[in-house]
TrEMBL record:
Taxon lineage: Archaea, Methanobacteriati, Methanobacteriota, Stenosarchaea group, Halobacteria
Protein name per its UniProtKB record: DUF393 domain-containing protein
Amino acid sequence: MDTDPDAPVLIFDGDCPYCSVAAVALRRLEGVVAVPWEADPVGPFLDAQFGSRPFAMVLVDPGEGRVYAGRSAAEELADRAGTPGIVGGLVRDNYDRIAGVVGTLSGRGRDPADVHDTYELTDAASGLVDDLRPAASERPEALS
């Protein structure tokens, strides 16, 4: 697990085997700490950042002081992975469709929240980023 205090943290659907595989791959490629949405420290972080617990892909970049959610998180991850700009745009524009298909295939019983912007990392949430790191996902069960 990356201990760099500025390393990005990805919050993802840990109940989804497809999402887990993608999160682990991104962590290896980009140094992203991948934490499942269901992990205990995620709820307090989301409360501090959003005032609620939206079920969404969230990329926290403490070094930039930014939080990307939903479509913005997907596009930012595609950009950081070095995919051509058109891929990031396609991911952003089709986020809801992709999330719906993945949710159906994985049997997830909830829809992603409608949060898709880039936000300033709040002071309260910033103080909780380090609590997320110990909850980083290990190798997903789908690959075990």
